[in-house]
């Protein structure tokens, strides 16, 4: 009888965790609403902010692997640039955000999100600038925004900054 009771309790706990999304995996998806809808700058910014804040709350910081220094950065969100949201094609978007690092550096991080019509899912995060020094730049090729290492001449964004939404 004790075994049957334990099995039932374990089943109920498992069902509850699954039904309410408490499986322990990182929550990378952020529903905007229940119907398929058009993604707006405001909803994209909100989704990114929730994504960053969820990780900060669970891990203490927003963690970004720096591909140049090969270190994991511990970051705290300062600002999301709502005026600098851009489509990269295939329902992938990016948002620029400013972070304070635990190492006292200021990081500009680009956060990439995929939109399926209902849910935003984080796909990548890259360090764009450290203390204002650009590591790569954005350029437009056939209405698709792409990156290249900083310092190379190209048809750069007019302000040598992030592209704005079309």
Helix-strand blueprint:
Elements: H1 2-19, E1 29-31, H2 41-59, E2 62-66, E3 71-87, E4 92-101, E5 106-115, E6 119-130, E7 133-134, E8 136-141, E9 144-149
Antiparallel strand pairs: 1-6, 2-3, 3-4, 4-5, 5-6, 6-7, 8-9
Biased composition (Basic and acidic residues): 152-166
Keywords: Signal
Region (Disordered): 146-166
Please sum up the structure shown:
The protein is α+β, with helices and mostly antiparallel strands and 166 residues long. It has 2 helices and 9 strands. It has one domain (25-149).
Descriptive report:
It is a single chain. With 166 residues, the chain is an alpha+beta fold. The chain has one domain. It is 22% helix and 43% strand. The chain has 2 helices and 9 strands, in the order αβαββββββββ. It has helices spanning 2-19, 41-59; strands at 29-31, 62-66, 71-87, 92-101, 106-115, 119-130, 133-134, 136-141, 144-149. The strands form 2 sheets. Strands 1, 2, 3, 4, 5, 6 and 7 form a 7-stranded antiparallel β-sheet that branches. A two-stranded antiparallel sheet has the order 8-9. A hairpin with a 4-residue loop joins β3 (71-87) and β4 (92-101). The longest helix is centred in the first third of the chain and has 19 residues, at 41-59. The chain is globular and about 40 Å long. The relative contact order is 0.14. Mean pLDDT is 77; it is low at 1-34 and 154-158. Keywords: Signal. Residues 1-21 form the signal peptide. Residues 152-166 have a biased composition (Basic and acidic residues). Residues 146-166 are annotated as: Disordered.
